[in-house]
Write a structure and sequence with these properties.
about 425 residues, 8-stranded mixed sheet, alpha+beta, about 30% helix, 9 helices, about 25% strand
Length: about 425
């Protein structure tokens, strides 16, 4: 067991960095500043250069190159955790030499990580499994990625004989609420490629993400005292319920879709009789379909307004991020080198898609090709979240190998003669 890596990861998850979409500031939580300062201290102690936390809470550092003329690449993870599950007071459960079987979470024994729902556990017998106690999330998304990057940086600094170019490290804030690169200029990294460490399991390379928009819906009614409401009140709560009920549930919903199927996802509601506000996610791998899903919302709104005369519904569509696939296809060696790095470790890389987004989607859209790599995440955003220490270590090994591959810049790499090495769309 890598005790240093384990202790570092446990230290990270002990800091509450939950993002807060309504905070009105960046970063949205004080814990992100706290974790960022801790990482600055650790990266300085390892010996990295240009280590700093900027005015927005982003953390930067550089691993100096050992191969003159080798290109600069970047590694990136995010400091925040999802607002969907509490992140304060994380009490990790460390299971060394995992014996197999279901895992009961001690803080809430009704919560059980079941093998039937997590079949990858069957392949991790004898490894070190880490969970929360069931009352919070664990925070492996994305503190496993941070731990892998710091581990890889330490290895490269301790082993100067390894040949690699300069490596820029960046830890972002508020990725979980879609603001991760809001204050990051990709050009400031001066890198030819970037890799986010924010992925499932081991040895996967995410080369596609959803394209994403957010719909903010306002349902306007008319409030008056219920004692004299007849013929006068227009209940926005009832109108909003009617509107949501008109959205497809057997399709175009997260609970009814998989693979590359897109969806509409109402996930937040607030308000009262006079006005109700809804937030709805629009997601699809085919960017053009986002406008179709927006039309579904508009038709539902028109039908509801016809059902509730004198009500009104406004829909504001906010652009979020776009599928990274198109951008990565223009830079095939970025994914090809990642595949080669994993193969050189005697492991089998797998190309994958993300039914979600990463900082890499926005960075790729902004011109810096950024696929996403595995770092041991399982059941993110949930109190059933868990990770495997050896998978975090494998992610660090991948980064070290990747640094060496980029220094060599081989002309031939997996997929270099076949543009179909990206996951195929259907």
């Amino acid at each position: 067991m890598n005790d240093e890596l384990l202790n570092r990861f446990l230290e990270y998850v002990g800091v509450d960095t939950m993002a807060d979409e309504r905070a009105g500031r960046y970063p949205s939580s004080d814990g992100q500043w706290t974790l960022g300062r801790l990482l600055v201290e650790q990266l300085q102690s390892i010996g990295l250069s240009d280590v700093r936390q900027d005015e927005h809470g982003l953390v930067f550092a550089t691993i100096p190159g050992t191969a003159p003329g080798a290109p600069t690449i970047a590694w990136c993870s995010h400091l925040d955790t999802s607002p969907e599950t509490p992140a304060a007071g994380v009490r990790p459960q460390v299971i060394a030499d995992y014996p197999g079987g279901d895992i009961v979470l001690p803080g809430d024994p009704s919560r059980v990580i079941r093998v039937v729902e997590n079949p990858e556990l069957a392949e991790l017998i004898g490894r070190t499994i880490i969970t929360s106690d069931g009352t919070t999330l664990l925070g492996a998304d994305d503190k496993a990625g941070i731990a892998a990057i710091v581990e890889a940086a330490g290895r490269l600094m301790r082993e100067p004989a390894r040949k690699h170019g300069p490596i820029r490290i960046c830890f972002t804030c508020d990725e979980e609420i879609g603001r991760g690169v809001e204050h990051l200029d990709p050009a400031s990294l001066a890198a030819e490629a970037c890799y986010t460490l924010d992925g499932h399991g081991r040895d996967e390379i995410d080369v596609e993400t959803f394209s994403a928009d957010l719909a903010v819906v306002a349902v306007h009614g008319r409030n008056i005292h219920p004692a004299i409401a007849k013929g006068k009140m227009i209940n926005a709560v009832r109108a909003a319920a009617d509107f949501v009920a008109r959205l497809p549930r057997d399709r175009l919903a997260p609970e009814a879709t998989e693979g590359r199927e897109g969806f509409l996802h109402p996930y937040e509601v607030s308000g009262g009789v006079a006005e109700v506000r809804l937030r709805i996610l629009l997601r699809d791998f085919d960017t053009a379909k986002l406008s179709e899903w927006a039309q579904v919302l508009q038709r539902a709104a028109e039908q509801t307004m016809a059902e509730f005369p004198h009500s009104s519904i406004t829909i504001n569509i906010i652009r979020q991020y776009r599928n990274m696939a198109d951008g990565l296809a223009r830079h095939p060696r970025v994914v090809g080198y990642a595949r080669l790095a994993i193969e050189r470790l005697g492991r089998q890389p797998r190309l994958a898609i993300v039914r979600g987004g990463t900082d890499g989607a926005r960075l790729t859209e902004l011109g810096l090709p950024t696929p996403n790599l595995s770092c041991g995440e399982h059941n993110p955003h949930s109190p059933l979240e868990w990770t495997c220490l050896e998978e975090i270590e494998a992610a660090a090994e991948t980064l070290v190998s990747l640094a060496e591959v980029w220094a060599e810049q081989p002309a031939q790499y997996p997929g270099s003669d076949d543009s179909a090495h990206f996951a195929r769309r259907s």
